[in-house]
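Dear support,

I submitted the protein below through the web form. The confirmation email said the job was done, but the results page showed an empty box. After a refresh the structure appeared. I'm attaching both so you can tell me whether what I see now is the final result or a partial one.
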Amino acid sequence: MKKLVALFLVAGSLLSGCGATTSTTQSTSSAQASSSSTAISESTADSSKEQEQIEKKKEEEKQKAEKAALEKKVTEAESALSQAEANPTKENYATASAAIQALPENKQELTNRLAAIDSTIKAKEAEEERKKQEEIARQQAEQAQQEAIAQQQAEQARQEAIAQQQAEQARQQAAAEQASQQAQAAAPEQNNEQTVYVTPTGSKYHTHKCGNGTYTPATLSEAQARGLTPCSKCYGN
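What the results page shows now:
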């Protein structure tokens, strides 16, 4: 009996020790779980914070890139404007206008400068057109003057040709008259040298042997000097 009681006491003691050990183990596991949960929470918070920093950095880089791009566009617009101001042509104006249109905002000053360039180009074109019209008018006036001179010279040449023709006609007419007068003056002499036929005892001179008798040739002047008269048959008087 005493042995049984002793055994029961030993068993109770052992059971009591096992319960204490189990309780201690459970407490330890619970503490570890709490610590692990805390660590996970802290890790999640750190990860979220790191992600926020990454996003923030990306946004800053994006803004920096946009700012650099805008500054580049502004620089390009300024350069194009300066070139257009130094050499105001339509090509340079178009380049500057496109560069300014590419700017998102704050471009009123550049737009004003562009408008001034446009005014300069238009004024230059108007001046060139004026000079062009003046040159056309000058050339037309010069051509008209040359045509007038050419017409005057042609008229003068025509008048000279007419005068020369008239002078030639007058010369020819004078020559003809002179020749006629000379011919008329020479006609009596030629007539006096005309050959006629006479007889020794006849009172007439003939153009040929007219009737019976002895006919001998003589000049008209010789026949007239002898007092002979023309034969009515030969001369039809």
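Response: this is the final, complete result; the empty box was a page-load delay. The radius of gyration is 74 Å.
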